[in-house]
């Protein structure tokens, strides 16, 4: 996937911007608050239909303006197409593909872009909910029916929790609870199964990428911690049975605590570098390297799924690594991959060719 042209009107402080990015590495420099992240966010939006910064889309319209326009020319597997997004005052976003209106969900598939922003550092050091969100949104999103299973799982989970919280038990309480448990085991085991199989595929890629970044000095692995004993991790029926058995065992505790204690919504993923738990023992630079290695592994997974690398967006995260770790990424920069990197200054010894643009007060130079 390559972004060939980007035209923005009233996108945050980017009032009127037109750009034909380089096919390889683009470094966007500029002082603070000039519009570097805004530019990355616009690329993120026209490649995913979502912002890495906000879910309140109206915030993206330049203050004082009454509409926003993003127009992009993309190339995917050799074909070109135009995606445009418009939002007029008080109306919803409108998406077009090659000039024709298109529903957002049909326009954007996963795997068009991967972003790495400072908030992604929480993937290592933050709470388990962030890691579960990452597995759901970035790692497993393309698995058939994953989102369908997630939506149904969450719906039943809410119903079950509401039932457990009821003070006066309705008639048929135990039967209803059992029905919810059966449904949760069905959807939940598929979620856990998909997570484990995608993690299995990611594992060796992550090890290799991390070794490259650290010039072979550090090793990484991860562990999926489940609220369900997982004996046969790749056997869906075994996961489902274990899920049902565990819910039976925890039945009294769930009733006492009035909440659902078992399932993928309680699971976690932890990273270990040189056998040490990365949450507690890794430096900031190591944590940054872990997230970077994860993102690079994910773009490799997308390449296997879709036949082409996604666009990679890195906001204020790459050039903070020391030169030896940046040098460890030479292999990445040799791939047919378009990368956008923001930084306040140009790097001194960047390990690959790049084109640089500077942004000042929302204008590219
Ligand atoms: N809707 C909006 N309308 C107008 N300006 C906005 C809007 N949203 C954000 N801005 C402004 O855009 C400016 C640039 O923000 P951006 O986050 O892109 O800066 P940056 O160049 O990445 O800076 P830094 O190096 O500090 O991260 C900020 O001054 C911000 O207040």
Automatic annotation (TrEMBL):
UniProt KW keywords: ATP-binding, Cytoplasm, DNA damage, DNA repair, DNA replication, DNA-binding, Nucleotide-binding, SOS response
A single cellular component GO annotation: cytoplasm
Predominant subcellular localization, coarse grouping: cytoplasm
Residues annotated as domain RecF/RecN/SMC N-terminal: 2-343
SUPFAM superfamilies in alphabetical order: P-loop containing nucleoside triphosphate hydrolases (SSF52540)
Binding site for ATP: 30-37
Pfam (any one): SMC_N
GO biological process assignments: DNA replication; DNA synthesis involved in DNA repair; double-strand break repair; SOS response
Protein localization: Cytoplasm
Family, per entry: Belongs to the RecF family.
Protein's job: The RecF protein is involved in DNA metabolism; it is required for DNA replication and normal SOS inducibility. RecF binds preferentially to single-stranded, linear DNA. It also seems to bind ATP.
This protein's name: DNA replication and repair protein RecF
């Amino acid at each position: 996937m390559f972004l060939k042209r980007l035209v923005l009107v009233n996108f945050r402080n980017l009032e009127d911007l037109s750009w034909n990015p380089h096919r390889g590495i683009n470094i966007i420099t500029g002082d603070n608050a000039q519009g570097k992240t805004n530019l990355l966010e616009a690329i993120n939006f026209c490649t995913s239909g979502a912002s890495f910064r906000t879910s309140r889309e109206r915030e993206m319209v330049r203050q004082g303006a009454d509409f926003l326009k993003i127009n992009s020319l993309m190339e995917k597997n050799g074909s070109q197409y135009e995606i445009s997004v418009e939002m007029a005052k008080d109306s919803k976003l409108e998406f077009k593909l090659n000039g024709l209106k298109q529903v957002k969900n049909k326009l954007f598939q996963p795997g068009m872009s991967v972003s790495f922003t400072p908030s992604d550092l929480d993937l290592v050091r933050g709470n388990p909910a962030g890691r579960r969100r990452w597995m759901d949104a970035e790692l497993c999103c393309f698995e058939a029916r994953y989102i369908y299973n997630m939506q149904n799982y969450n719906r039943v989970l809410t119903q079950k929790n509401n039932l457990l919280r009821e003070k006066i038990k309705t008639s048929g309480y135990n039967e209803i609870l059992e029905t919810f448990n059966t449904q949760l085991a069905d959807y939940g085991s598929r979620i856990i199964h998909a997570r484990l199989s995608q993690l299995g595929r990611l594992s060796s890629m992550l090890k290799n990428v991390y070794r490259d970044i650290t010039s072979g000095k550090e090793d990484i692995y991860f562990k999926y911690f489940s609220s369900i004993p997982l004996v046969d991790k790749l056997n869906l029926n075994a996961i489902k049975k274990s899920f049902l058995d565990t819910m039976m065992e925890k039945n009294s505790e769930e009733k006492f605590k009035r909440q659902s204690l078992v399932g993928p919504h309680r699971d976690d993923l932890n990273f270990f570098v040189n056998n040490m738990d990365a949450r507690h023992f890794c430096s900031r630079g190591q944590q940054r390297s872990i997230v970077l290695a994860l993102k690079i592994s994910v773009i490799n997974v997308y390449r296997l799924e879709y036949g082409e690398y996604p666009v990679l967006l890195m906001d204020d995260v790459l050039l903070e690594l020391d030169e030896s770790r940046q040098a460890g990424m030479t292999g990445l920069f040799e791939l047919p991959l378009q990368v956008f990197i923001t930084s306040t200054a140009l790097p001194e010894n960047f390990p690959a060719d790049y084109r640089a643009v500077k942004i000042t007060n929302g204008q590219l130079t």
